[in-house]
């Protein structure tokens, strides 16, 4: 059985679709009810902070995926992520299941050049410090031979059905509505984005391959383009003028005074004002899987989730 902790989010939903497509038995675990949309899928209520509940939900698992997303608040992250990670580790020890943690790149901090699986952790944000701590927490247990675990790491997303993505919300959705696009930071800097359907497929492949355990893997992600190039590509696909409004740090902070989630992005502004180059060559070579191009991904979004 494949158990997904933190079900209901964009990556968890994409992974569920891949597992279902391949006739796997799936257990979805979350606090909010989810109506299973396929055969061999069940839902179990559990709070990831409550080990007894999580253990009960995960009994019988062969692979357990942690795809949870917490409220975008550094105080909550500091309080809850270490507890959730320790519960995840304890699940691996008690059930013997393989563990796969879906992670981001915050722990790397500002990197001059490509981010790879061997890039040292050098966080320059409170959220990055939390991510560095929990990633180390997991991999130290794997190195000690106490669990079998891997980290699936991705860049910023696009292709989310929840609109919980900078590129989706500020560019694709805007152009679908014939509005001016917005871009955080300097649109002349490089940035890459991981396509959600690719994330589901890639995490599924990790789940199928035990020899991938006890490693960090960067999920297949197209090479970076400048914000300007991405915006111009999206405008051409949507058939609109490439109109763009750049949001600087002061604007972000000002808006954040009225929106806590936006305020939570202010400390991450460095990612948008410098080159952001996420490299996934290791995974692409090991699994012989190329990421979806931005051209194809944005075109599909323009025909489905973000239609004009």
Q: How would you describe this structure to a colleague?
A:
With 308 residues, the protein is of the alpha/beta class. It folds into two domains: 181 residues, Rossmann fold, CATH 3.40.50; 97 residues. The chain is built from twelve helices and 13 strands. The strands form four sheets. A seven-stranded parallel β-sheet has the order 3-2-1-4-5-6-11, with helices on both faces. A two-stranded parallel sheet has the order 7-10. Strands 8-13 form a two-stranded parallel sheet. α1 crosses α6, α2 crosses α3 and α3 packs parallel to α4. It is globular. The model has no long low-confidence stretch (mean pLDDT 95).
Question: Topology, please?
Answer:
Elements: E1 2-5, H1 10-21, E2 26-30, E3 41-45, H2 51-58, E4 63-66, H3 74-95, E5 98-103, H4 126-143, E6 149-153, E7 156-158, H5 166-176, E8 181-184, E9 190-191, E10 193-195, H6 196-208, E11 216-218, E12 225-226, H7 227-238, E13 244-247, H8 249-256, H9 260-266, H10 270-273, H11 281-287, H12 294-303
């Amino acid at each position: 059985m494949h158990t997904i902790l933190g079900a209901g989010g964009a990556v968890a939903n994409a992974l569920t679709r891949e597992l279902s497509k391949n006739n796997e038995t799936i257990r979805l675990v979350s606090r909010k009810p989810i109506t299973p949309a396929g055969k061999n899928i069940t839902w179990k209520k559990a709070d990831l902070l409550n080990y007894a509940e999580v253990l009960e939900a995960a009994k019988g698992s062969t692979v357990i995926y942690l795809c949870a997303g917490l409220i975008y608040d550094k105080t909550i992250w500091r309080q809850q992520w270490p507890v959730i990670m320790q519960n995840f580790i304890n699940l691996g020890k008690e059930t013997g299941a393989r563990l796969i943690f879906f992670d981001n790149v915050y722990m790397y901090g500002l990197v001059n050049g490509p981010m790879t699986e061997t890039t040292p952790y050098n966080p320059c944000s409170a959220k990055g410090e939390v991510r560095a701590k929990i990633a180390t927490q997991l991999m130290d247990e794997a190195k000690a031979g106490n669990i079998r675990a891997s980290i699936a790491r991705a860049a910023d997303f696009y292709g989310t059905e929840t609109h919980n993505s900078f590129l989706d919300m500020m560019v694709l959705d805007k152009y679908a509505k014939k509005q001016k696009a917005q871009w955080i930071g300097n649109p002349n800097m490089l940035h890459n984005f991981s396509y959600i359907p690719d994330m589901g497929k890639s995490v599924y492949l990790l789940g199928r391959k035990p020899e991938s355990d006890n490693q960090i893997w960067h999920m297949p992600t197209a090479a970076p383009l400048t914000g300007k190039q991405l915006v111009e590509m999206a405008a051409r696909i949507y058939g609109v003028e490439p109109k763009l409004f750049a949001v600087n740090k002061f604007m972000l902070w000002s808006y954040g005074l009225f929106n806590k989630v936006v305020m939570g992005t202010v400390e991450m502004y460095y990612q948008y004002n410098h080159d952001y180059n996420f490299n996934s060559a290791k995974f692409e070579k090991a699994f012989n899987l190329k990421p979806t191009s931005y051209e194809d991904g944005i075109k599909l979004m323009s025909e489905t989730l973000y239609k004009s």
